């Protein structure tokens, strides 16, 4: 069995927002929350957000969690739910199961903050919104003030990934605000 996951990991995971959420065909705008699980009984839950205003199914949390990922884990699940009544009935809105291999051991160093978005599916398998989050491996972080092997900016032999915004913990610049789309491109290529 070929896998990048050979030891337990500690991830810094921030649930940023969700968009185009629907319940019974109407925008989910009240009491929406996210449950994050890393193939364990331990779950991390955001607070309920949404005030019922005309948000058109967009909800923002920006809540950070430290998630312990066991060595056997292969994915992280984001379950978006909403409370539908004053008695506290909870309804599933959508779920996204994200493979750890999508952001660990890729061309972007694990210690770099990666911003990702995934399609949510309801229990019938139908599309129901998008979840936006950021993630970084805390155990892979270099010592403060020291850049190891390569940065998160496409230099030192690491490819720059077009379509994935990456922000290194050791640097920041105003030029990181560019909008990109496409496929991975090596930084030395002249296109």
TrEMBL record:
Residues 1-113 form the C2 domain. PANTHER family: BON1-ASSOCIATED-LIKE PROTEIN (PTHR32246:SF74), INGRESSION PROTEIN FIC1 (PTHR32246). This is BON1-associated protein 2.
